[in-house]
Amino acid sequence: MQGSSSGDSGCLLGLSDSESYGPGVICFYIISFLNLDIKMASCVSGCSPVMRFCQKLNRLKTLEDDVMATSLKRCLSTVDLALLGVGGMVGSGLYVLTGTVAKDTAGPAVVVSFIIAGVASLMAALCYAEFGARVPKTGSAYMFTYVSVGEIWAFLIGWNVILEYMIGGAAVARAWSGYLDSIFNHRIQNFTESHVMRWDVPFLAHYPDLLAAGILLVASFFISFGVRVSSWLNHIFSAVSMAVIIFILVFGFILADPTNWSAKEGGFAPFGLSGIMAGTATCFYAFVGFDVIAASSEEASNPQRAVPAATAISLGLAATAYVLVSTVLTLLVPWHTLDPNSALSDAFFRRGYSWAGFIVAFTRVFLSFSLAMNTVLLSNLFSLPRIVYAMAEDGLFFSVFSRVNPVTKVPVIAILVFGSLMAILALIFDLEALVQFLSIGTLLAYTFVAASVIVLRFQPEKSSGNTGGGGIKTDASSTPSQNQSSQQMDLVATTNESQTFAQDAEGLKEYESFSDKLQLVERQKTVTERRAPGTLKARWEPYLGRFLGDCEPGEVVAFSVMALMVSGVSLCAVLVFGNNQLHLPVWSFTLLLVVFSLVFLLSLCLIWAHEQQTNQKTFQVPLVPFVPGFSILLNVFLMLKLSPLTWIRFTVWVAAGLLVYFGYGIWHSKEGLREQQGQDVAARYVVLPSGSLVETVQNVQPEGHTHSTHTSPLENPPNSR
């Protein structure tokens, strides 16, 4: 009986069944383990406050077993999501940015700016599509960063996405108001300035836009009725908007004059390459809309298929519309004569004298422009409260915004509060200040999502028992003793499998037949090819194994991603500021470009040399890490092309976000509460000299307090078997 107890105890400790261990040997292992644990605890105690603080900032979100479970209503199809994306993109860029960028930044080369912005957005959209299919939860870039990078980074991304949607909705409302005012010969503006008020304050509009604020409040009221009402309204407005685009393209190409691109009018690219790239940074505002698809993935019926398909369809349609409409606009009239406030309507009016009958038709089209503007308003107001809801649901934002109406299944409080804040922005800020500030938040979100794809793709797969590291959450009822026992059982199973394989191999060597040798080679090949994500690929083992073989899975990838970001920022800084602001000599400029480019490419190659997670069930970005890597590079370059004033405003907004996070979010984070609950109780197994196995449960107390210990034998002690 004694031998049986020792053998069973050895199994629970992960020791081999083929060897016999007595109580003394087992106690030696336990004492050694406890001694090592005490040494580690004493080592960590000196810097534990700093380590705990860093762990709080970088903790990952734990996903539930059923990622499809939600308190929202899953009812959106692929068509619904695609039209939401089209509605979010088509409208703002066509009626707001084309004239502004063409006249002030790029000239007719605004066409090239839209193409480059579309390519960069495509790389970012692929990253969003993978995350939206893999993690079908609302929150978009915030959620994707939370499950892969860390909590504070996710909060900052979510904080900036909130500002992105608020500014986007306010900017479109101002543009809608400006178009309607231009139809009535600016009578609305004149009446407001004469009878309401007018102010001359820097960075603010000259008069309060009551019409823009009113349309935002009305749109917020309709969206609070539920996702189906919002979807059908978006269908109607998207159909009207697409009909208007077809009209613009058909009659625009009929009235086009190629001499408007000639050297007499300044040429195709009067501002050069710098103007094209600066225009590209601003044109990113036009492609913000595809983010609404990922933000709505928690309300999609089949997000694994609908999110990638809707992203591709909407982005393709939007990019085509932007390129063609900007071509028509710069061919209708000379680019330097465009009216930035109402470019399309002004261009058609100036060419409408050729056929008087067109004037009436154009007037009707201009009236329908306002309907198309409401499409973008719906998209921004649709996504914004869902981002706020996701952050509040995780405890990082005020919990009142996580309340979902039981009838409409939408966060009504978040919709009404942030719809009102959006109306205030539209009331007092002008269009140019809003648009310039918007691009930096979009580019930053694209950058973090692309980096998150790389991190998550090469991240070692976590076991279900790990609740603190962003894996799939285990059952809440499982105790620490059960988790430890399961890990010990897995270790025993692994040991038995390795012993069985060794025995089989010895048997194969004994018989020396060709078929046995072939079978052994095939089994060894299978074991060799079955490498964990984040480890070095077998083909590169002979070359890089000497340098990288001792690294933990994912360690080299994490370091390479950091080097990728640093080298990318440095390379873009040299390209943007090297000649003009820094006035670098040619040799130093070239040397820095070569060095940072080599580091960037070497980081990509090191990441590519490691194994990836393969998931055949959901969409995956092709050519990882190259597509996300070049997306990061282009996004950072475009961010550095923005004005210094935009960076100052961005810094102020981030500082305000940090105050909210450290004042509220870090203390109410549900991941933090989950970690505290997991640390309340610690269990150990102790083997008594008699050979019985006892479970010791200790309540975790702050330092300096006495631990209360409760010892109880297991239900089935070894000596009773």
Automatic annotation (TrEMBL):
Chain intervals with Polar residues compositional bias:
709-721
Q: Pfam families from the xrefs?
A: AA_permease_2, AA_permease_C
Q: Which residues form the Cationic amino acid transporter C-terminal domain?
A: 619-669
For bias type Low complexity, the affected ranges are 477-488
The organism's place on the tree of life at top rank: Eukaryota
Task: Give compartment(s).
Answer: Membrane
Could you tell me which residues belong to the region Disordered? 463-490, 701-721
Q: Which UniProt keywords apply?
A: Membrane, Transmembrane, Transmembrane helix, Transport
How this chain sits in the membrane, per its record, is:
Multi-pass membrane protein
Keyword Cytoplasm attributed: no
Give the transmembrane region(s): 20-38, 78-97, 109-129, 141-162, 210-229, 236-256, 268-294, 306-333, 353-377, 410-429, 435-456, 556-578, 584-609, 621-640, 646-667
Q: Name one GO molecular function term.
A: amino acid transmembrane transporter activity
One GO term of the cellular component aspect? plasma membrane
Chief localization class? membrane
Coiled-coil annotation: which residues?
A: none
**This chain belongs to which protein, by name?**
Cationic amino acid transporter C-terminal domain-containing protein
From what organism does this protein derive? Danionella cerebrum
